[in-house]
User: Fold these one by one.
Assistant:
Number 1:
Amino acid sequence: MIKLIIDKKTVEVKPGTTILQAADSIGIHIPRLCYMNLSDFNIENKPGGCRVCVVEVEGRRNLAPACATECAEGMVVNTHSIRVLNARKTVMQLILSDHPFDCLVCAKSGNCELQELAQTMGIRDIPYQGEQSTYREDTSPSIIREVDKCIMCRRCEVMCNEVQTVGVLSAINRGFTSVVAPAFEMNLDHSECTFCGQCVNVCPTGALTEVDHTNQLINDLADSSKTVIVQTAPAVRAALGEAFGMKPGTLVTGKLVSALRELGFDYVFDTDFAADLTIMEEGAEVLDRLTKFLNGDKNVKLPILTSCCPAWVKFFEHQFPQLKDIPSTARSPQQMFGSIAKSYFAEKIGVDRKNLVVVSIMPCVAKKYECTREEFSVDGNPDVDYSVSTRELANLIKRANIDFIALPDGDFDNPFGESTGASVIFGTTGGVIEAAVRTTYELYTKKHLDKVDFKQLRGMEGIRSAKVDFNGLELNIGIAHGLGNARKLLEEVIEGKCAYHAIEIMACPGGCIGGGGQPYIHGDTSILKARQKAVYEEDVNKTLRKSHENPYIIRLYEEFLGKPLSEKSHNLLHTHYFDRKKEIIIE
Amino acid sequence: MSSIKIKLKEKDVQQIKEIASSFGNKPGELINVLHKTQGVFGYLPAEVQEVVAREMNVSVAKVYGVVTFYSFFTMIPKGRYPISICTGTACYVRGAEKVLDEFKKELGIKVGESTPDGKFSLTCLRCVGACGLSPVVTVGTKTFGRVSPDKVKDILKEFD
């Protein structure tokens, strides 16, 4: 152990600990900007570039960046001497001198770490005047890059390259003209970007934000010729409360429904219903492939991979197109909902699909992109018109003068408001496969499943594997969250190192609860754990906990779809994937 | 959406593969591989960077990041007659900048660019070791000494 003194307090730390970590451990919060630590996922970014965390170390000539300086025995550190405060202020003023002054209209305002830091440091003027970097704006279906606001903290690069292994973002050019951009400065839309939005989640400024659909939504809600319906994803209810100052992990399902009703939606539905539907289709597919496999059919593709996550889908289309026949063909719950709403439901209420606006509330920004995929539209009319993130919804609720905390609990409308506990856990890593196991167990064994909690499938480990006993048949299940982990797992599958029957993959660390559209966590991963707990809590509170027990699902099959994997199901609830790998053509 | 297509000649791809494997395809050798590749092709077009990225198992964004960071690397093909103006100390104090401006004006291109017909390209370098002849300009394999702005037109004419 190493003993040192920080701000006159003695602290003992392990060798290798940085001054910043040592200070954190005794409650001294040294300001930081480029530094990022998502401890639960072992993700750290400490390029030591911003110099905001400088501290004075006795006997050292220059100031030390606390994030990149290791503690040494007997060190005496001062984190707020006059020399430090002045240097820190100058550093901030220099950073701000090359930052646009449009805080009043910036999408990140109120959540911007640069803004907050400037306030904490009491910066009231910027004495430096000089050239400002300018760079074109890049808009994609999900993410907007406004690189003028980039402070080169490189957090997005860490997420894109090391965590997600997507490799789209890199620092380019040098000196004053350096920015973070895709190769050849192409637009994100043309790159291999999966739109997972993890870069948006960690960007300290407004350089990376999501495409905002709230104004379009306000217009549609005001249009009397349109019937506007909404579906809301499971992970939203476990995080929305945070935007109103509620404790992380507070479930706000009822208030969420009431808020959506007050906003003026004609019907308030639940994506959870569609998640139950997904399990019906995906479960039937698992069972079909498994049975064939066990009967010795050599053509059957195993493991089956989940296909609910649009970022994951785009990832394998670019990176593993050779595996495109392995994932389940089931559409994501968002898209299943859209296609059922614009066929079955539109018919039921006698509204033309062109006058029916289907909006989704998602913890995700990739869902915005998913809505725009051509195969999810009929004659140019999308099944889901657009998707709004949890953050955008929170903003909209405030804009509509709704006192969210005081709202009474509301109930979803039917027929798409009823859902089971199985669908709620779709919001967390491990949840989709657990939901699938609950249903396929009963379908396969034809026995009643008493204990529905499959604890071995739960957790926060990046890659997990578990065995589930299907009445004598041992099912091997793999789970990965974070695309880098997904890559590792897939490579093992390709090399034949592991024999899984089914694998669940979610693009975001933690699953949808940590989605790119959720309230910002500013590095506090304990918030994700609280959200995960909330999702499991909602599951326990439900009377029905297996997707196939949902009475409205049963009715939907009776009235409309027939049975899982029927022709109608195939047309409306299944999809196909594309090979998006860059091809080198040799002339 | 169809996949992104990259067109390259078989022998070019083969050459890049050989260069990459001569450095063990190690990501840490990226700069060396790019250096050698540029030696072969004269520049590093996007297609070449794509193949280098694939061979070195790094993202093409990373390759592009390195290419744009170092001024040595260029994505623009050199002209048939590459023009280099020495802007080392001796040449500089004897008016190299005015000579450079004249070349820019005459050719209508900036430093690092090539003329649309691919005939000339323009770069600066630091000292060719012929300070006695300053300001010095090299065009292809020819060297010109004591160049003044009014001589630029005549120099270019020699390559008609």
Number 2:
Amino acid sequence: MASLAAIFGSGAMTNSIREIEGMEVIFIIGSNTKETHPVIANRMIKAYRKGAKIIVADPRRVPMVRFADVFMSLKPGTDIALLNGIAHVILKEGLHNEEFIGEKTEGFEEWKKSVEEYTPEKVERITGVAKKDIVKAARLYGGSRKAGIFYTMGITQHTCGSDNVRAIANLATLTGNIGRESTGVNPLRGQNNVQGASDAGCMPNVYPGYQLVENPEVQAKFEGAWGVPLSPKAGLKATEMIPAAHEGTLKALYIMGENPVITDPNTHHTVEALKKLDFLVVQDIFLTETAALADVVLPSTCFAEKDGTFANTERKVQRVRKAVEPPGEARSDLSIILEVAQRLGYPMKYTSPEEVLLEFGQVWQNLAGITYQRIEKEGIQWPCTDREHPGTQYLFKGGFPKGKVPFSPVSYTPPAEVVSDEYPFILTTGRNLYQYHSGSMTRRVDAIESHAGEPYVELNPSDGERLGIGDGEEIRVASRRGDIKIKARITQRVSSGTVFIPMHYREAAANVITNDALDKKVKIPEYKVCAVQVSK
Amino acid sequence: MMMKITIDGKSIEVPQGTTVLEAARMLDIAIPTLCHHPKLTPFGGCRLCIVEIKGIPRPVTSCTTPASEGMEVTTSTPRIKDLRKTVLELILSDHPNDCMVCERAGDCTLQEMAYAYGIRENRFAGERRIYTKRDGNPFLERDMEKCILCGRCVKVCDEVQGVGAIDFTYRGFQSKICPPYEEDLDCEFCGQCVAVCPTGALAGKMWSHKGRQKGVREVDTICSYCGTGCNITLHVKGNEVIRVTSREDTWNEGWLCVKGRFGYQFINNPDRLAKPLIKRDGKFEEASWDETLEYVGKRLNEIKASHGPDAIGGLSSARCTNEENYAFQKMLRAGVGTNNVDHCARL
């Protein structure tokens, strides 16, 4: 999201979910939309029924492929080559948007040179995608002026994740497919309130509303608002805190509602790091794998037990309402935070969650117009700058916050770990339809657990045959970091040479073997590619 | 192009392609329907929406008849009422009279129609379809004895969900809706079919005997799984969430996925943490809030005093609300004095 923000000036989904219906071309790359965002997929299917063309690029034959005009089964980690290749064809066939490029962009000529080498022939060699499919995708996307791109972690969870996003933005900029209704770039957020947690400044380099910590004016503004001196330097990212704990420079960690033992890469390393802390506080609704390592566990409430708001992937702030009482003595996260802050010598006096949102709106103009009363029936999409403002259906209608959109040359670099004789398979990870993230919620739902309660590794039939592995057979998957035992699921969903493990299952936790190599800019781990061996 | 149409003496201009049923609903004229659903293509299957149109000798189904210029429609005459009642009696002649134990009683369109038309005895009583098969899946209960073959489930599965797991099979009295070869349902279990079923033929298995309307509160909120942010309604009895639905008038149009619709049992799960815990000698012990909070405050203050504020970090949650996230980072930044705060956007 940080990379998208650097290019367009905002890192959120530029269109609304409803607008998907009006798109002519839908380009899905690195998103298993039908399983991870099923209701958004419903809108895509609606667009398809109205005649929209769908392009899917994914290492796996994901369910949306059924609706696709073009399916590009690329090798994991080769997205930049594919995207640059598509741009190359668009340029060569003159499908680019000269008017848009001339008026609203900069750096075109230099960038153009950078994609010259990405001929369909070369891209076919790198990605494994047939030349004709690259050309077909380029003609579809480049031939439309009402096209949307959709992506998720399949794009970002790579050591080159931020460059992947740049390559996507370049395509949208090249064709002018941005800033209009049913036309834009749309990262789909994986968790109910990732958007809101980011908006609220739960990131080490920005205050609420993406205002830079290291900008002295911003610092002064927040010192004024909060009445205390604030630190002038950016803090540690989540993926840096774990190593810092390991090295002993981070002494205490307060974790609210996260389960890094399961969700972070390289589990053994994460557990060791958390054990080295002098003090670990975990605030959660279950005694998760992470909470089990804590010095103190604070019982909190789930979404059904509190009032507040979530911001969804289309920037819509929606009302969350209390329906049931929490179990036993569990307390809302907000009330716990206020108690702890009091004991840290910084009392925060809020009498209701709404007061917090109103303060948030005072420090970030984009939320200034939102009150609980205004979102009683339906949520409002930010920016919503005053009480009369109706909210913003799609971004950049009146131009881009930074003026011109830069083209940013990006080149293909292989993943941090490539296959070798010893580790000949590429492992990619993700979610399935039924389970969710670390499984602490869904694995406690009997129906889901009885239907999809068993971990599995997807293996192509030809690989299964070659290794003598049958469907349902227990096998060993190992990387340089660890190994797990897991049942094989023989399926055409993965291509030969690639295996897939869903991340949800603690008894065969994929992250025991994933690589904790990080993207150099945004520090996202490379969950989507690592080299493994598969054996009986 | 706009068309002027008159229904029961009231006139309205509607865009070309509007059906007579849609035009009537714009005029707040009630026409009963069973198979029609505003988000699905019309089918004309149940025949309840029949109306008389001037110049057409026989009654026509209003859901499939497009409005045309100058059309004059009558929605309710003794003849129409009588025909509708007969249609209902025919449907009910092959329907188990077990509303007392049906999950959908009180929220069933068919029951409501029988009530409106005062149907109790049935002059067409006779042989009934018997359906004993029970699906093995843990999500959806399919009781085809209660199915009126309206086809809404078939359409929603195909048109909205793009799955096409079920369709009509056999003919006449043997007609039923089922997966290929009458095997167990094997689909995405989104439950869209349950949401549109007008009778008790489809229901959630986990809803069984948990409660219908009496003593059940409905609370509108937002789903807590992925970032789509679907509107959901929690049905609560006592202090337990017993069912999740979604309203059709929300942006997600009432559509949900398997997690959103059926993944709610973690809320009332017995594993939920209910007391603060402090680890002593490697074991967790329950403690009071006061003691726990004092301890947390003391330890954090000690670490800050001896190692500086940047020795402390916080991981916030994409599961929590905007308000909680705002307060959390403010606690770290203003309370502790560090910018070491992040959440799982990257994970």
